[in-house]
Amino acid sequence: MTAPDHASSDDFTALLSAASVEVSSDGHHLPSLQDNFEPGTDVTITFLPGDNYGRNVETASALRRAGYNPVPHIAAREMPSREALNDFLARARGEAGVRRILVIAGDVAVAKGPYRSSRDVCASGLIEAHDIESVSIAGHPEGHPFLSPASAFKALEAWRDWGRQAGIRVEVMTQFCFESAPIVGWIDELGARGVDVPVIVGLAGPATPATLTKFALRCGIGNSIRSLRGQIGRFGRLLIDTGPDGVVRGLQSASEKTKASIAGFHLFPFGGLRKSGEWRRSYAGQTPQKAQPTP
Fold it and tell me: pLDDT (tens digit, 9 = 90+) per residue, 91-150?
């Protein structure tokens, strides 16, 4: 599913209709995905500590057969060797038709092989060698957990330059926030620094404030977690799902210059695929279409 390159106010419905979503590498969520997200949706596949990349390829292949566009994560520090990375990319392209990947450093402190960062994976030359067309990298509107703001923006500049040299589209997928202000400020800072890369805004799918707080703490979300505390104060028992409506409305109210950098949205389905799918259809005014497996 292809989204517009940039967003004006009128584009937000189309961008939300084309929002990507995340599933785990075990592939167990395929039936729920088919019930709640249309064929052609980009589906990212997590690479958590201890995952075997062979299983990730199998999940990507199953997604492709079901009519989705698989977007596997590559966790740099989980790759034990150059040979393993080469095999992963070769199989992902050959068996699952992967054309877009999401590169992260990974959650383990010590690298299992030669790659300590996402930039190390990029420098390997293997992404170009396997005809990957698009690379998504992580952006942190509320601050990178290990880099100063200046260093984090410098790293994004390096990614921009690499994409231009390699002829590969580089997109930044943001960590989720619970307020729009950090995202707007971060996008504006990108523009001020001349880092003209498309931004895919990460949204936390509907879940209870308690569930969202758990994931926020795990992912190192910063100041916008205070908005969840407000939810807790209002709803007490934490049984009412909170969706990203407020974040989207805030982005819609941003300047046209800010919105011009937004190339799409990505849903983190913390409350489950059904809730995220229902929210996306409701917000975008869609009618559900169940995916049909391809022969």
Answer: 999 999 999 999 999 888 899 999 999 999 999 999 999 999 999 999 999 988 778 889
The tens digit of pLDDT for each residue in 135-184 reads 999 999 998 877 888 999 999 999 999 999 999 999 999 999 989 999 99
Could you tell me the residue ranges of all domains in the chain?
Answer: 9-284
Q: Are 115 and 83 in contact (CB under 8 A)?
A: no
Please give the C-alpha separations between residue 112 and each of 24, 45, 90, 124, 295, in angstroms, as whole numbers.
21, 20, 20, 16, 38
Give the phi and the psi of residue 123 in degrees, each rounded to 5. Answer: -75, -10
d(CA 207, CA 72): 24
CATH code for the structural domain at 9-284: 3.20.20.220
Cα distance between residue 289 and residue 38, in whole Å: 5
Could you tell me the pTM of the whole model? 0.88
